[in-house]
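USER:
Make up one protein:

ASSISTANT:
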Amino acid sequence: MANQQARLQQFMDEASIRNTIARFADSATRSDYAMFKTVWADDGEFIIGTTPHGQHSIGADENVALLRKLRTGKEFFVQFALPGVIVIDGDEATTRTFVHEAARGPGEKYYRNHCIAFDKLQRSGDDWLFKSRSFQYIWLDTGPFAGSGFPLFPVA
């Protein structure tokens, strides 16, 4: 019975971690800054790429400010996230999330990438929050691409 309980807890923790990853992608895509803030620990660290061109912030409020900066002037932005391996150790977890992003704007700026997010999460009640999220690029394309962007409409 104890083994079944442990397996059930493992399943519930993995589902909660996948939900945190999905909420990150959803809120980043829709510019939902209030939701984006909820996926971070108070001192969570957000790292994109490496210096000198990388971006870095610490703390839920600074992480939201960084997302706002990155989203400013974008005609569209979309992030797809595929959670990979999840390793849970008590109230801490690590994951590798495979990510694809595409964006256009402001103006004739283009952006597509494939990257891996190296995640550290911590338990917060029944939920999990990012303690650290570090994006490492595998492929980056800033050349023009065809297609049209459409505004997102609020869901009722």
About this structure: The helical segments are 2-30, 33-38, 60-71.
